[in-house]
Specification:
Elements lengths: L4 H7 L6 E3 L4 H10 L3 E3 L20 H23 L6 E10 L2 E3 L5 H11 L3 E11 L9 E9 L4 H9 L20 E5 L2 H5 L3 H10 L5
Parallel strand pairs: 1-2, 1-3
Antiparallel strand pairs: 3-4, 3-5, 5-6, 6-7
């Protein structure tokens, strides 16, 4: 009698852990939520990680986030090979925010954060998260794309400035984190809450099972 699909997948699981090529505490928390064992695989001091996120002229957000995810995956695999650490699959993700076809990345300073949040206030925008896994042979799995829509309330400039003073907007695409204080500004979401955080768990689970991660 053939094994049920879930049992068959478990029987093929070979990898007790995965590398996570991300400094994001949110992605780490989400992997922990799934029960995935992971080790961080972060850029070396001599790597220009920010250069991978540079936009290309005329690039649309969906194409941008998938290209950056792929570039990060290739860089992470090269990093792993060079490190001499035990071989295992590598999980990579990238998130961006888009409004009126403009890509809103991470704010460079408080003024930039205020500009972004003022643009988003009272409007609906899209959050895109691309993710992939590089398997233990170096093959990059097809990039998955999670698309969600978020509507921020019409928040006053004073409220936004107080939010910026908390430091939360920095290091986050669109200058806010839905899992933090900015949750008070979110009127409506459509799509994946975990995708908006930076790692859509449905797509992540499917990728990890496809690459035989034990969790």
């Amino acid at each position: 009698m053939p094994l049920p699909a879930i049992a068959a997948t478990a029987a093929l699981a070979l990898h007790p852990f995965i590398y996570l090529a991300s400094q994001s505490p949110r992605r780490q928390e989400l992997l922990q939520q799934l029960g995935v064992r992971y080790t961080l695989l972060l850029p070396r001091p001599d790597e220009d990680a920010e250069a991978l996120e540079a936009e290309q002229p005329g690039e649309l957000a969906a194409a941008y986030v998938q290209r950056v995810c792929l570039a990060k995956a290739q860089a992470a695999r090269a990093r792993l090979v060079a490190s001499g650490n035990p071989n295992a699959p590598v999980l990579v993700a990238d998130t961006t925010v888009t409004l009126d076809d403009a890509i809103l990345g991470k704010p460079t300073d408080a003024d930039h954060a205020l500009t972004m949040l003022s643009q988003l206030a009272g409007r609906e925008h899209e959050v895109l998260t691309a993710l992939t896994v590089v398997d233990d042979t170096g093959v990059v799995q097809p990039v998955q794309l999670s698309r969600s829509r978020v509507r921020l309330a019409a928040v006053s400039t004073d409220v936004l400035q107080r939010y910026i003073e908390t430091g939360e907007p920095f290091g986050k695409a669109g200058a806010y984190g839905i899992q933090g204080r900015a949750a008070a500004f979110i009127e409506h979401i459509e799509g994946s809450y975990s995708g908006i955080m930076g790692l859509p768990l449905f797509e992540t689970s499917a990728l990890l099972r496809a690459t035989r991660i034990d969790f």
